[in-house]
Amino acid sequence: ADLRFVRIPRRQEACVPEAIRRRTTGTGRMRHLKKIQHRFKNGFREGTVAVSQKKRTQSAASN
């Protein structure tokens, strides 16, 4: 028999706040949500190109 994917039974304490905290968002990998949080911080910008460091330093020096 193939025993690689045997599910370990969880304790049925879903209504306890500590159990909810253990299994909530952020306790695992968050493969997709990490990217979404980063995009949210930047205002979901798409199709723009960052200002080059040369232009940025020149404009700061002229001000």
Automatic annotation (TrEMBL):
The keyword Chloroplast does not apply. This is Ribosomal protein. The lineage of its organism: Eukaryota, Metazoa, Ecdysozoa, Nematoda, Chromadorea. GO terms for cellular component: cytosolic large ribosomal subunit. It comes from Pristionchus pacificus (Parasitic nematode worm). The gene is WBGene00276418. PANTHER family: 60S RIBOSOMAL PROTEIN L37, RIBOSOMAL PROTEIN L37. InterPro entries: Ribosomal_eL37/eL43. One of its GO terms (molecular function) is structural constituent of ribosome. One of its GO terms (biological process) is translation. Keywords: Ribonucleoprotein, Ribosomal protein.
